[in-house]
Design brief:
Distance between the termini: 34 Å
CATH architecture of one domain: 3-Layer(aba) Sandwich
Helix content: 25-40%
Strand content: 15-25%
Number of helices: 10
Radius of gyration: 18 Å
Strand order of the largest sheet: 3-2-1-4-5-7-6
Length: 274
């Protein structure tokens, strides 16, 4: 599927005021910087194409943010029968419920809700877009994603590429965007020259220490600094069979020159009662 041309986001769908009011949508697919907007739109294009396999089925968006992806999926030709978006705090959940109130088949809840028995093995598809790069306790989240899927379900994970040449290009774009007052880029952790070199030549293992924020709060998190998509691949492979890796925004360039990658994976057949 990686060689198929991504669809273009529907003009009708993106003109939806409920989408345009989303916090993340405003700085991603509707960003004032055309290059940033194009890159994020291509990521959503790839995700919507990959999620077409969930038509008529039950889907979970883990870390749904402002609900943009699920709203676009439900407005397209391959809509799932039911879509559930989950987030960490009530502020984001309540915002999604307010903006998408009354949309058939779409609901939002706290992430903690899916630890309940009713959600175990309940989803044909789980989407996790631009979340795992921020997670400190990665094993716990990967286990949660695995438990939510049916035994024949599919996991779609999108993460940024923050190694190799894409890292150098991204840091330059972020610096320029920060100067222009676009997005949250002025708050991105800076790299020393030695850290940048380590990222440029990174292999599969963690290559630099990753800063942790919010350690005194309920949910510590990473920013993008030091994230390695190959390391995540190996962590996912402990619980999932990774069938395919799709690069974005230009699939034929491959992950080495991509700004994001998508993992398409299936849960390993391990005893779920263990």
């Amino acid at each position: 599927m990686g060689s198929e041309r991504p669809e273009v986001l529907s003009v009708d769908a993106t003109s939806d005021p409920s989408l345009r009011d989303g916090h993340y949508a405003a700085k991603q697919i509707f960003c004032r910087d055309r290059l940033i907007a194009w890159s994020h739109r291509r990521r959503f294009d790839a995700g919507l194409r990959l999620a077409a396999r969930f038509a008529g089925r039950r889907v979970l968006d883990y870390g749904c943010g402002d609900g943009t992806f699920l709203a676009l999926l439900l407005s397209g030709p391959h809509r799932p029968a039911q879509a559930v978006g989950v987030e960490l705090d009530d502020v984001q959940v309540d915002d999604c419920r307010r903006r998408f109130h009354g949309r058939p088949g779409l609901s939002f809840d706290r992430i903690s809700a899916i630890d309940g028995r009713a959600h175990q093995g309940a989803y044909d598809g789980v989407v996790c877009m631009e979340v795992l790069e921020h997670v400190v306790d990665l094993s716990a989240v990967i286990d949660r994603l695995w438990r939510a899927l049916t035994s024949h379900g599919v996991l779609l994970v999108s993460v940024p590429v923050e190694t190799g040449l894409p890292l150098v290009c991204k840091q330059a774009v972020r610096r320029i965007a920060g100067w222009r007052g676009i997005g949250d880029y002025p708050g991105t952790s800076a790299y020393t020259w030695s850290e940048l070199a380590a990222g440029l030549w990174a292999g599969r293992a963690p290559h630099i220490p990753r800063p942790v924020y919010g350690e005194d709060g309920p949910t510590p998190f990473h920013d993008h600094k030091g994230f390695n998509w190959r390391t995540l691949h190996d962590r996912l492979a402990q619980r999932f069979l990774v069938d395919e890796i799709v690069a974005s925004p230009v699939p034929w360039l491959g992950p080495q020159l991509a700004t994001q990658v998508w993992f398409i994976a299936r849960p390993k057949p391990i005893d779920r009662t263990a």
